Amino acid sequence: MAILEINHLKKSFGQQTVLKDVHFSVKEHTIFGFIGQNGAGKTTTMKAILGLLKIDGGNITVCNEQINYGNNQTNQYIGYLPDVPEFYSFMTPLEYLELCGQVTHMAKHDILTKSQELIELVGLSAHAKKRISGFSRGMKQRLGIAQALLNNPKLLICDEPTSALDPIGRKDILDILQKVKDKTTIIFSTHILSDVERVCDEIAILNEGQIVFQGSLEDVKAKHPVNALSIQFYDHLHINDFMNTFSDLQIIPEEHHRLTIHSKDIYTTEMRVFHYLYQNHIKAEKVIVEEPTLENLFMEVVK
Ligand SMILES: Nc1ncnc2c1ncn2[C@@H]1O[C@H](COP(=O)(O)OP(=O)(O)OP(=O)(O)O)[C@@H](O)[C@H]1O
Fold first, then answer.
1. What band does 225 get if pLDDT is binned at 50, 70 and 90?
2. Is ligand 1 within 6 A of the CB of residue 43?
3. Which UniProt keywords apply (predicted)?
4. Which residue has the least CA distance to atom 6 on ligand 1?
5. Same domain, yes or no, for 145 and 257?
6. Looking at residue 222, what is its pLDDT?
7. What per-residue confidence (pLDDT) applies to 201?
8. Residues 6+ apart with CB under 8 A from 263
9. Whose CA is nearest to atom 5 of ligand 1?
10. Which atom number of ligand 1 is nearest to the Cα of residue 41?
11. Average pLDDT, integer, range 170-176
12. Is the CB of 36 within 6 Å of ligand 1?
């Protein structure tokens, strides 16, 4: 079932058309990577999902309910983590979550149990009674996730949750998102493709106001079938002979006695190469089939 559906979404700011015709859907219990360059319109799309922005056309549904600007009924289903979450920094995480629970009319007992459960989930138990003012960016981001999950949202929207973090902080956040996937559905915007490759089940790429690709990471690989084989020799001795033997293939010489072979049937080529090496008693340092990457796809669709 789709938790979120966006159809023909349009939004301009004055003369600038940011979203021309955006449509995509997000399936339940997935981590969905919403990818786009700086200024592509990711935050604009997220604000539209939260009903915080008057859109110029199209429609958005969350849990099959239509989103209307100014009427935020559907936000009961949504948890939101902004790129830079703001807190009352004189409070402790427990006090802050308690305040959030009170504002949203949670039962007192539920606030306490849920807050403790979430603080443990995001790895802040040792800091539960320390002031937020002393927290690092990564810790604030983790507390932001706890806050966004307080009301058991069906959809967790994270706007660039890892962009300002170092590699360890980014890994912590991605691990937490993976842990909560069973309980909710996550859409996160980013321009960090390696983060997407690490955790996302599905992606959509926003470029020039439109979705230029939506699919799973398997779809990305299918769209970019494996077509390169990289061979690294120990020295230069065998390279000329190799290139003559395989003159029917497209071979690109690289640095450090390395060759890249492009071929439509890379697996047959790989067998031929191994056969040649074996027959001629040549040892290669490395023979690698190059995997397609999200970066290849991204560069192709946004160029
Ligand atoms: N309230 C606004 N008024 C005028 N222009 C706006 C407004 N909000 C966004 N924009 C413009 O819309 C474009 C898209 O902005 P948006 O913040 O949605 O991009 P983004 O993909 O989230 O970028 P980033 O990765 O840098 O956060 C930008 O050119 C921005 O300047």
1. low
2. yes
3. ATP-binding, Nucleotide-binding, Transport
4. 13
5. no
6. 75
7. 93
8. 227, 229, 249, 250, 269
9. 13
10. 18
11. 91
12. yes
Residue 109 has pLDDT above 80, yes or no: yes
Q: What CATH number is associated with residue 233?
A: 3.30.70.80
Confirm if 31 and 188 have CB atoms less than 8 A apart: yes
Q: Confirm whether pTM is higher than 0.90.
A: no
46 CB less than 6 Å from ligand 1? no
Q: Are residues 181 and 59 in the same domain?
A: yes
Quick check: CB of 22 below 6 Å from ligand 1? no
Ligand 1 neighbour 15 (Cβ under 6 A)? no
* Statement to judge: residues 205 and 269 lie in one domain: no
Per-residue confidence (pLDDT) for residue 5, from 0 to 100: 96
99 plus 237 within the same structural domain: no
List the residue whose alpha carbon is closest to atom 28 of ligand 1. Answer: 39
Q: What's the 193 CA to ligand 1 centre distance in angstroms?
A: 20
| Choice from 13, 37, 83, 191 to test ligand 1 binding pocket (greatest atom count within 8 A of CB) | 13
Task: Tell me which residue has its CA closest to atom 4 in ligand 1.
Answer: 13
Which of ligand 1's atoms lies nearest the C-alpha of 46?
18
- Residue 218: pLDDT above 90? no
Answer yes or no: is pLDDT of 223 > 90.
no
Largest CA distance in the chain: 78
Residue 272 structural domain: 224-302
Domains in the chain, number: 2
